[in-house]
Amino acid sequence: MSQPEAQATLLIQQAEQYILVRDFASALPLLDQAIALEPDNVQAWGTRGLTLGNLQRHDEAIENLDQALKLEPNNRNALYNKGLLLNQLGRDTQAIAIFRVCTKFIPSDALAWQGMGASYSALGKHKEALEAFDRCLEFKPDHFNAMVNRGFTLIQLGRYSQGLNSITKAIELDPSNPDGWYHRGCAYIQQGQILRAKEDLEKSIEVEPSYSEGWANLGYVLSQLNQEAKALIHYKKAVELDPSNSRAWNNMGLSLRRLNRTPEAIAAYDGAVAADPTNYEAWDNQGYAHVVLGNYEAAHRSIDQSLVVNPKHANGYYNRACCYAAQKEVEPALEALAKALKLNAKKYQPSAAKDPQFNNINKHPKFLELMRKRSK
Within 13 Å, how many C-alpha atoms sit on residue 288's CB side? Predict the structure, then answer.
């Protein structure tokens, strides 16, 4: 081994020690030095790609991983880490192709099968996801994430009891991991078993007090139990731990509105759309809160944005109709209501018939005609 190669190897090993403790910023300059000493070092490029990915410098990370693969096309670590990165970026079709290459060369690559399953799941291809998770568990029966994800996938396929059993096995494998408790709690929510969900979600934050999603979903369960003040405490903790948790901000807004703290609700919805501008439900909920306060111009802006993000969002059209009705603008109110009914008459026809928001127009002949048509 030449002196530059030996020095580069030492620098990579030092960088890997920093990576183990997730100090990626300290690892990066060591890898830069390694590459300067040995520009064709596959491990250095691959490790630098991994490091940049963890620093959220995604484009550079992919460039580095591609450089490693240019030097060694079948390098398993570079392939696998690129697949993970593509999954994180929502480029799941590409990720699956990468994971398939991994399993082609090493059929027993359990981690690649798990990654493939996660990408299939993200694409809504649950049958393919289940096959991938099963392959992972074939080679690594104690793989916690694959066991949890298998359970979630089975539930998506309507095989609830099997899915619950799989998640329970994951909890038995590692009771200290909050993900198992959290996902079983979510499964119970889906089945309407709210008290069981509450127990599991409480356990998720007991074993990991900084688990934002556990706090958020426990808030949702408390809201379902009509404990809005307690729910609000949990939502606030969730966004304190993770300000990017858009769903928690949105649910906080709903609780505040139910507590008649509507201006604070609007501020919570601001947090939701700042964290995720594509959260159309938060835009819509904010719009309705403005309707309640009589801020009709602001209401239209928020509701319109919800429909820009999701033009098939029936509740957005319904709330648009509410806003126009409150303004006594009959024609646009009826036009928006007709769109809501077209998308979901079963839900919105009975709602519109008794909603006080339509008091200004509910005696209008066209409103009555619309109700009659949709009730047939």
Answer: 19
Distance CA 303, CA 319 (A): 7
Picking from 258, 261, 235, 233, the residue whose alpha carbon sits closest to that of residue 247 is 235
Q: Which pLDDT tens digit goes with each residue over 345-360? A: 889 988 888 888 888 8
C-beta pairs of 262-266 under 8 Å, 24+ apart in sequence: 262/289, 262/292, 262/293, 263/293, 265/289, 266/290, 266/293
Name 254's Cβ contacts closer than 8 Å, sequence gap at least 6: 223, 265, 285
**In angstroms, what CA-CA distances link 333 with 81, 226, 284, 322?**
52, 32, 16, 7
Distance CA 152, CA 49 (A): 31
106: left (phi over 0), alpha (psi -120 to 50) or beta: beta
Global model pTM greater than 0.85: no
- Joined together, the tokens standing for residue 180 give 């198992």
pLDDT (tens digit per residue) in 270-316:
999 999 999 999 999 999 999 999 999 999 999 999 999 999 999 99
Q: Are 155 and 164 a contacting pair, CB within 8 Å?
A: yes
User: What average pLDDT does range 75-103 have in this prediction?
Assistant: 95
273 burial level (CB within 10 Å; 0-12, 13-18, 19+): buried
CA distance 242 to 127: 32
